[in-house]
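To fix ideas, we close by showing one paired sequence and structure record:
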Amino acid sequence: MNKLAPIALAAALSFSALHLARADKPGPDWMPAQQVIEQVLKSGYTQVTKIEAEDDRWKGEGIKNGQQMAFQADPKTGVITTENLDLPGPDWMPAQQVIEQVLKSGYTQVTKIEAEDGRWEGEGIKNGQKMAFQADPKTGVITTENLDEEDD
């Protein structure tokens, strides 16, 4: 009986890995990528520079009104559900000032900062732990933070 346990565990892990690998692939009822791009272009984009199936939706990047944007689209209709500037906007606080603001909030080091999905995202060290944070693009105030478990 004990000899079957490792086999059952291996089978379960293989099934889980297969399920996870499929999580970022379009489902059978999803609109094809080309049709999503056509829908996005109809909504005011002049160019789509990236599109991928991720987290049960289409995620992409493109140019709208002369600015680099990040968007998410419904997987079945291609309708944009969210969009944000993908690069710092003219009214955004500069990265250096965001870092200063983050350090004032208890971080001892900032190891990464980038404009992402309409906000500043970064990583740093707080209370001796590696943390991931998001900050308001105009004020630099941290809006969310949590343990950065990505590298574990």
User: Anything to note?
Assistant: Residues 4-22 form the longest helix (19 residues).
